[in-house]
Design goal:
By secondary structure, this protein is mainly alpha-helical. Helices cover about 65% and strands about 0% of the residues. It folds into 2 domains: about 90 residues, DnaJ domain (Helix Hairpins), CATH 1.10.287; about 90 residues, 434 Repressor (Amino-terminal Domain), CATH 1.10.260. The chain starts with a helix and ends with a helix. About 5% of the residues have low confidence.
Length: about 200
């Protein structure tokens, strides 16, 4: 099983904050079930069939614990105690780096544009597309190396949030996209997911 998935809390699995109401948990669970259904193309662009099955199980486990106030309180106590015992380990939840050769990155550097990229804080889809084209990386190459479908890559670049899956998947997609372009993946994925959540009215 993908270790980054195992390390996630039940709140992260359902993509809700720890203070989420029971109604929010219920809503997130239904959305996760729909997005992560066996027929969902989003699953198999990122996970193997075995991982997809394990993810479905994690979603059910997360829901059964968080929807019950008593088991949720026990779970909160347990994860808070674990964080206190392993503060350094808890903070070191970085995604495993993509290990690739750089033969797909062949472009002439523009010092001015490189500085613009470095100083930019708002990475919307059109700017990400501009960077991808500047670095001469095609959508098929991004898709091949990340296993993200071309449809989702285009939706990201078009800021077409309604065509994108649940936010937890969007974060993974944008993170992979940014890593392939040798960008600050954490900064970019955080900004992009916040825009998606704002559009969808999610907390």
């Amino acid at each position: 099983m993908n270790k980054s998935l195992i390390d996630k809390t039940y709140y992260e699995i359902l993509d809700v904050v720890p203070s989420a109401s029971l109604a929010d948990v219920e809503k997130a669970y239904k959305k996760a079930k729909e997005t992560y259904s066996p027929s969902s193309p989003a699953l198999y662009s990122v996970f193997t069939p075995h991982e997809a099955k394990e993810l479905a199980r994690l979603i059910e486990d997360a829901y059964s614990v968080l929807i019950n106030p008593q088991t949720r309180q026990q779970y909160d106590t347990r994860i808070n105690a674990r964080a206190d015992l392993n503060p350094v380990k808890t903070k070191a939840k970085n995604e495993p780096p993509i290990r690739l050769n750089n033969d797909y990155l062949n472009y002439e550097k523009d010092a001015s544009f490189e500085e613009t990229i470095k100083n930019t804080e708002e990475f919307n889809g059109s700017f990400l597309k501009k960077i991808r084209e500047y670095k001469n990386v095609s959508i098929p190459i991004i898709s091949e190396k990340s296993r993200i479908s071309k449809t989702y890559i285009k939706a990201i670049e078009d800021d077409n949030y309604d065509k994108l899956p649940a936010s937890v998947f969007v974060r993974g997609f944008v993170d992979q996209y940014a890593k392939l372009l040798k960008l600050d993946s954490k900064k970019i994925s955080t900004y992009y997911v916040n825009k998606v959540k704002e559009h969808r009215g999610e907390e």
